[in-house]
Fold each of these.
Amino acid sequence: MSEVHAARRSRLRDRWMAAGNEAALVSRPANIRYLTGRAVPAAALLLGPDGRDTLLSPPGPVTDGRPEPPGGPDGLRRLTLPGIASDPAVAAAELAASAGAATLAVEEHDLTVARHRALAAAAPRLRLTDLGCAVEQQRLVKDEEELAALRIAAEITDHALGELLESILVGRTERHLALELERRLMDHGADCPAFPTSVATGRNSGLAGHRPTDRRVEEGDFLTVQLGARYRGYHCRIGRTFVVGPAPADWQIELYDLVFAAQRAGREALAPGAEYREVDRAARHLLEAAGYGEALAPYTGRGVGLEIGEDPQLSPAAMGKLDACVPVTVEPGVHLPGRGGVRIDDTLVVRPQADGGPELLTITTKELLAL
Amino acid sequence: MSEVHAARRSRLRDRWMAAGNEAALVSRPANIRYLTGRAVPAAALLLGPDGRDTLLSPPGPVTDGRPEPPGGPDGLRRLTLPGIASDPAVAAAELAASAGAATLAVEEHDLTVARHRALAAAAPRLRLTDLGCAVEQQRLVKDEEELAALRIAAEITDHALGELLESILVGRTERHLALELERRLMDHGADCPAFPTSVATGRNSGLAGHRPTDRRVEEGDFLTVQLGARYRGYHCRIGRTFVVGPAPADWQIELYDLVFAAQRAGREALAPGAEYREVDRAARHLLEAAGYGEALAPYTGRGVGLEIGEDPQLSPAAMGKLDACVPVTVEPGVHLPGRGGVRIDDTLVVRPQADGGPELLTITTKELLAL
């Protein structure tokens, strides 16, 4: 475990030292977790000029029960600061200066103006440069360890959803169904839900990120659920839409087939070298052609990993191309105000055709089930 | 409702215009919610030089189900930006410049260096100054509307805890007890839990923010629960420690009496004009005198409101004095590694003695119950 993180840190060193940096300060929590395997609140990671890596953190609740991850020494030094008042990033800057660094690359997209000024004041002879999104870039392509965690997160998610489908739904409220799904996610070993579980019935169905209400499931409803497990810090997402009752109405079949076709087109467009916007286009144009262009969400998919919505973003304006081993969601949806709608979300890993094409992690059926 | 928020905005205007500012940009989510009553993700609030207030936000998922709060027009203009790519803070700076502002006060403790640079680039003739924590300062003392929400949050919390105490606990896991508490919080009308519910049994008891495990409750255990409801955005906290079984052991009674005495001393020290550090001292010195000074958390209480841990902080180094109508927690605790411990957390509102002294919001008994 820890060797993996040491290797990630040295890969980062190789890249930014090539860029002329001598020391780097990582402050963004997801980036710190990626490079250390540790989820420490309000911490700062210094990659020092002396080649030493130091994780600085406030005492926090001294008795905080969070377990340290397994794994022997990985060359990471821990420094716990005396008071919560002291900012670990400032302490890291002082440490870098005392270790002889003349420049320190910081995450300007994460540090606030006030903290940046405090760093400059604490280490006046240190020239602060911008590390930019070097760590986020490195996080794009996942290693086997990360993909393994994502597969387990998806397995947990499929189980939780599968169990719900076996239970009686009619008459239960969106809130209670969402709470039950979250309980099942935990039962199957999730750290926690990857995002607030959404259950949307009837006229609410098809809404992205709908907050569950006290509306009860009725015969004939579309029922949209969106959930995901977080496992060892890795997030996945599934979204499905069902019909409650004996058989779907014609308009429901029609709308479902359309969204299904769009979602499949998006999935099939996933390949190493495919442009982000091409993938979005593949799903989007079908919905636009059917006259639903107006109300579409600004993206049809996003990256997942240590964050539920990370790079890349599959949207019309996105720049860049997919690589192998990049996990993304494909999540188009259509909502008809007053009537309801359909969302179908999957989490997949980009793979070359030679390896069988995109790896589908969320395997719950996408047939239109009548429950 | 909206009049309240309009009044808060004009109170803020009065204070920072006195400080020579022309226009202000509020970017911190809790501050935006305080000034607008709206919980809009990734939004920016501009208090313009023309006296107009504008809330700018990205489209987000167009079909997002979040309801707008009740209340008629409150002079707040809404601007939804074309793409999620565009930063509302940058758009707000451009709007301020086009409205004729020469300077714009921004929240340098919230804006990242990268966003601040983008603002400067988008509105080069605009001089950016620091609004500092003007909004946080204004949020310290709560108005009746806010205290009412906090009282309901505490009521919900007491109900959820009270129901749990009536159920069988032995043999159930920390995880399941925590999930049940969160379900009950929702059942009683919470927006969501105010923070991750903590249930700690046996040797885990007394740990602050302990993450529930699969350990089962056993006879003779100390059982520490920490939970809180968020209601209309307002957070409260309660923490209680119980003994499972017929009767507590002597060491349990002794430790409980000590923490109870410290917590009461902290509560009794709450008064308008009392220094933050005095209140901390009142609770802390008893625990230090008993030889538990080493492992104490860095603070014994914190402010609550639109955030669960906001100003003030009751800690040895904190500067400042309490005012009336400031809600705070008093939450000392002691944990004996390998044995367990005790935490007792309450949420109270500071009141002058003339009004009966501190108002206790979380009224669940603090006797040492044997369950």
Amino acid sequence: MWKIQWQDKKELSLARQIFLSLRERILAGQLAAGERMPSTRELAGSLGVSRNTVCEAYDMLLAEGFTVSRQGAPTRIARDVCLDYRSAGVATAPVKPEADRLLWDFATGRPDVTLFPWKLWSKMLGEAACQLSPGQWGYSSPKGYELLCGEIARWLLRSRGMLVEPADVFITAGATQAFYLLAGLLHKTGAPFVLESPSHPAMYTVITDRGYPVQWLEVDEQGAMIDTLTESAVSAVYVTPSHQFPLGGILPAGRRAALIRLARDNDFYIIEDDYDGEFRYAGPAISPLYSLDASHVIYVGTFSKTLFPALRLGFVILPKPLQEKWRHYRKYMDVQNPVLEQAALTAFLRTRAMDKHIRRMRRCYGEKRSCFLQAVQKHFADSVCPWGDASGLHVALQFPGAEFGERFVEESRAAGLGIRPVNRLCPSLHKQHRDKLLLGYGHLNAGKIQEGMSVLRRLMERGDYGYVTRGS
Amino acid sequence: MWKIQWQDKKELSLARQIFLSLRERILAGQLAAGERMPSTRELAGSLGVSRNTVCEAYDMLLAEGFTVSRQGAPTRIARDVCLDYRSAGVATAPVKPEADRLLWDFATGRPDVTLFPWKLWSKMLGEAACQLSPGQWGYSSPKGYELLCGEIARWLLRSRGMLVEPADVFITAGATQAFYLLAGLLHKTGAPFVLESPSHPAMYTVITDRGYPVQWLEVDEQGAMIDTLTESAVSAVYVTPSHQFPLGGILPAGRRAALIRLARDNDFYIIEDDYDGEFRYAGPAISPLYSLDASHVIYVGTFSKTLFPALRLGFVILPKPLQEKWRHYRKYMDVQNPVLEQAALTAFLRTRAMDKHIRRMRRCYGEKRSCFLQAVQKHFADSVCPWGDASGLHVALQFPGAEFGERFVEESRAAGLGIRPVNRLCPSLHKQHRDKLLLGYGHLNAGKIQEGMSVLRRLMERGDYGYVTRGS
Ligand SMILES: Cc1ncc(COP(=O)(O)O)c(C=O)c1O
Ligand SMILES: Cc1ncc(COP(=O)(O)O)c(C=O)c1O
């Protein structure tokens, strides 16, 4: 009865093994309520362990109420602790197979992290760790590290000419968290959220997960077609005016003004997602919608593209009427961002290491882009039309006459290519973008880009997607 | 008309200032649609800047569609870009007054971060930064850093005897994020969440924010009174069995078994919040409810108390049926935790620096606790009864006959004392804990603890809270 099942777990102390073994018997009802436990001396002798070890195990049983002990009397099994115990959660789960390896993965939204100044970043992390005060390692504000908010405001001024109060800058775990919180904050019963089609799936998903209605805004070469927006009762409008994701248009001033007028007349907020505004090759940065009317635009920024995605740092410039609710929801969602990266990013911005890094990356992405466009030219001549190549880390390629669906995805994967058709990002019924592919090149080197494009060409020649190759 | 308003902002390039100034005039309608812009040479001359500077500003206007330009023809103002522009968001917000300074802040949930091995942690952060591969700085899994999940499973085995599969460990931004996600995952229409009263406000807040019903479970010296749970249709039950927060009871085995039986019979999950199980002074760690039935218990752990709160790292051991949904919601909530701290924590656990730190802190908190209890004894003799002093970083003090409300909070704050009455954490109508105060001492040194208690005594002597002082 008192035999202990020794486990093959070196991590477990003998005392705990004894405890676990006895507890299992008590739970299973093999040791019944009121039953007397053997003395510690007795059990230690029979198990060949020290008496201290057994005492420790008995203390655990007693502390958790599996046994009762009254001064002088022997320890007994407590009442009502029997359970039809099944050992659960110990079985090994099937290990998920590793994502199939793609040789040429043209995924979007991936910066080239190999060129990030890791040494400098480590140094700044180390310095930040030394400089933070004990209070700052505790819970602080759901708004974010105040010095970082100030540096972000200064960075927005010098990089985009934005006039922003640090008091309105709220730090987030990436743009994704901003969208998540905004979906909850901006929803008005019965009024749809208006999203670009195609667009990034994050905003669409959080809105439909909550059961809120969505209305689509079609997109052309210049971005969202604002004049098709007829609904006046709207929860909010989500746009990417500096570089439409994924088709690359820059929203022209006329459409910007029209959108702001609509927002004012119908009293809704515009969510401006400026996810890669830094990487514009053909001229200076586009100034944001926010600058036109800070009271109707919620500007969302992220450091995922400029630094790296696993940093999970972004921010939102929040109109004052939303700030109190935001604080509440953020506090009970995850309290705040970790402090260390916030402090390091503060130094990265303050010392202008950011500016230098952006300049360098803009040059480097510009070269990758030329390489990419040359490869497109080589393999497809003028039969293919690149959209949105003036900025960012990706391009949409239009193959006139083609129609890309699941079969393309499967066949390209089988060939080692990772490429998404644009219409994967159009949950609306209008499928006018089915002749376009989306290719991210920011994280790839020239060799990969060139190889990948020649593989794509072979695939296009081989497969019948309705497009006739005309490359050299 | 073409006069530029130079700003006193050294951060802004001349070109951008020209651009901003012209844009403002266009938006305000002062420069009308179709109007011809001056030539770059002309404007440069009149402003006394280089022609390149003006060209740059013109490029910005053109890129954003404020102007149009056809080969050979002069640049003109675009149509439809006028806006009744008001400069918004530039006003300075009233700065929030700093939280009033408390001289003796007995807040709960604050570890003593001054004793954390910062040097070692910085080293581990630095090493982690060097070891992570480029792929790991990109977006990865919403589950968390796999090596960390493995180390957490090993840590739970050696510290609490828990058998956990790494595949079931999901990393979170603290326990708070786990509660937030679980509220959404576990809700069944019409079925209340059952919470301890009193309890930590996080779970209560996220549930009521979503409009879900709550049912209260009263708490006595031993923790939640499970036998008062009569409802059978329940969304989930939230408990703190290892150390009831805030009253400190250890849930006895009989109540544990009863709770598990209820969960099995009525098919609901139990959320086990083990927020400070490491710091038990009177014996070995309490083994968790999870070990009794891993298929009905969701175990939530956090590193906020063992390391520091601004780390924002915790975890949940998730039953398989919930894992897919969890991945989905986490992915669109904030994608994942930052990777660096996860990698450093992996090393902290792997090298057993964690075990050493916990041993040291347990000793240190044990001393603070003795100091605290001695001060209580000195000032209040046996007239005051400490609850839950066998573990954790806080104690609830019962002042028989007293009744603590808003007046106490105000008067103690005025005296420089930060102390919460327990009934602030009882949103239920039963106010049987109104004679108790909650005092966290983990972050305070002996001097602060002693001074604070003598201030409290003077306050209790002075104020009339229904309690008669009997200290020495
Ligand atoms: C258009 C767009 N917005 C937002 C994001 C979200 O970025 P994060 O949450 O990493 O800041 C992305 C990421 O790829 C994106 O492409
Ligand atoms: C009982 C209890 N649970 C959970 C938490 C949340 O901790 P975190 O979100 O920092 O992990 C706390 C914090 O004080 C707490 O007291």
